[in-house]
Structures are given as C-alpha cells and as structure tokens.
Amino acid sequence: MPHQIALRFEDGVTRFIEANPTETVADAAYRQGVNIPLDCRDGACGTCKCLAESGPFEMGEYIEDALSEDEAARGFVLTCQMRAKGNCVVQVPASSSVCRTPQAAVTAAISEVRQLSPSTLSLTLQDASLDKLAFLPGQYVNLQVPGTDQTRAYSFSSLVKDGTVSFLIRNVPGGRMSSYLSGAAKPGDRMTLAGPLGTFYLRAIQRPLLLLAGGTGLAPFTAMLEKIATEGSAHPLHLIYGVTHDADLVEMDRLAEYAERIPNFSYAACVASPDSAYPNKGYVTHHITPAHLNDGDVDVYLCGPPPMVEAVSQFIRECGVKPASFHHEKFAASA
C-alpha cells in the first residue's frame, strides 16, 4: 500500500506524492515529476538531505560525510535512502520552482455562501477536481476574487469530502473578497484556488495538545479536528476559542459535535467585550491554566490576529513554561 508524502518547499509550496514501501522517497518524487536535488543516489554526497518532520521511515546505507550522527538524531534524512513506512512530511531545502513543481491551481464552483455572524462568512466550494487537492489540515490556499487578479489567503475549515471544501472568512467592511461574497457572489460562480501553502498544520500527535483560536483563526482547527475525529487520538486535546463580541461566536454546534466524536477533546469559548453576556469573559490568556500547559509536555497550536499571537506568546513565556513545540499563524485583514 503506498504512503502519502507531503514535500514542503522553502517557498511555502506543499506537494503531495505517493511512495511505495519498496522505493525511496527520492525515486518516488522523480517518478511523479518532482525533482528533489539529487546527485549520487548512493547515500554518499548529501545533496538530497532533507528534514523529516513527521512520520515513520527507515534509512538505507549511507556514509557519515553525507549525514552525520547528530543530523540523523535531529531528523535529517537522505531521501535517496529514505523509505517511508507510513505517511510522512518532509521539508525540502529548495524552492518548488527549482524542483520543477509549481504551485497547483484548481477551479471550483461556489456551492454556498452563508453569513454566520456580522463578522464571519462561510464559503463552500464544490468540484470533482477538489478530491485531488491534497493538503495538511491547517494549511491555506490563495483564493482569487472572481473578475480580478486579486487573491486572498484562507485556511481550509474542513477536509475535502465528495468534492466539497469550506472556508471561514472574516467579513471585512470594504474588503475585496468580503464585498464580493456578500454582494455579487452566486452559486455556480467559479473561483481559483492556488496551493496548498503554509507551515501551520497538524503534526503527528505525540502528547497533549492545546489549541488556541482567535476569530476566524478557528478555521484551521475545525479542519484539524475533522482529521482527529476520523483517526482518533490517545492524547487529550483542549481548544480555547476567543472572540470580541457575543455575535462573533460561530461554529459552536460544530465544536460540540467534535466533543462527542473525540473522547479526549474538550473546548471553551470566551468573549473579550466587557458588555458580553457569555459566561466566559476576557481573552484567551485568561482561560489557559497550568494543567493545559502540562509542565511543558504539550504541543501548542495558535492561530489568530497578530495582537493575540503576541499576547499569548508573552503569556506563555511569563508562565516559565517551554512547550515541547509551539506552532503559530498570524493573519491580518486585507482591504
């Protein structure tokens, strides 16, 4: 059974290939038209050295001049000797253009646009071609505003199912995409997606997770939770979702559904406005407890506007706790 390998290039592009258990990752890449930098193919030169970010694999023979013991301990591999034993993510120290694998682009039709709140729109796209658009939960694509050459970056808020995928989009007054979706958009309109892109994605779950979302920064987490609901997790996961006003809270029914489907998952929402009637008030940092940080044995994922990301980062530093890993994504609205 072939394994899925996500190749992440230094320009942010991600390309997915399939590798048979008996072939090396380099051979699988070349077979599918991706030219990973390569020279000797014998584990002697180090030209194909990459970083294996996650996933099981075995290494064939190589010499220490090509890959030192310290590098191997830090997760570096020689793709000419790496054989995947499961799905893997590999970071390639070259641009996608050098490796002759341009950013993928597909078009899809608008299936539905819903206004979930005054501040949030939900966009659903549908096309058979989307079933072939592989991405890591948490990544984003550039969506082109129909009739213009303008694009905006949005994280997937779902996995692809039956040729359908969704996004949560902040409703920015006067925003190019917001104005289109809330005005001229209609079912059947075609939109172009280019990607996937981004280093913010769900890694293999090896310890408890703390997920922190601000506003439409919830989007990548609903995609992550969909994957976890399908595959399960032996470790606890807790999500804290913060918004400014009561009306900004969206997808609460969906979070409740995930709490039923994922035994180890819990969540809390909070509203920053002092006029809020919601039970949990304040910012996300007001609801992070020492138990959530687990003395540092925790992987933290954070997605929200820049002030929130900076405030949470400062809060964790002041707690004197260093998480095992800390992944974050900042987003800002475009006019």
Quick one: CATH superfamily of the largest domain? Nucleotide-binding domain of ferredoxin-NADP reductase (FNR) module
Mean pLDDT, all residues: 92
Global outline: globular
The domain count comes to 3
How would you summarize this macromolecular structure in one to three sentences?
By secondary structure, this protein is α/β, with parallel strands linked by helices. It has helices spanning 25-31, 69-73, 176-184, 219-231, 252-261, 290-293, 306-319, and strands spanning 3-9, 14-19, 49-54, 57-59, 76-78, 82-84, 88-92, 104-117, 120-126, 140-144, 151-155, 164-170, 190-197, 209-214, 237-243, 265-271, 299-304, 325-330. It has a 6-stranded antiparallel sheet with strand order 11-10-13-8-9-12. Strands 2-1-7-3-5 form a 5-stranded mixed sheet. It has a 5-stranded parallel sheet with strand order 16-15-14-17-18, with helices on both faces.
Overview of this protein structure:
- This protein has seven helices and 18 strands.
- With 335 residues, it is of the alpha/beta class.
- It folds into three domains: 3-92, Roll (Ubiquitin-like (UB roll)), CATH 3.10.20; 104-197, Elongation Factor Tu (Ef-tu), domain 3 (Beta Barrel), CATH 2.40.30; 209-330, Rossmann fold.
- It has a six-stranded antiparallel beta sheet with strand order 11-10-13-8-9-12. Strands 2-1-7-3-5 form a five-stranded mixed beta sheet.
- Helix 4 packs parallel to helix 5 (252-261).
- The radius of gyration is 21 Å and the shape is globular.
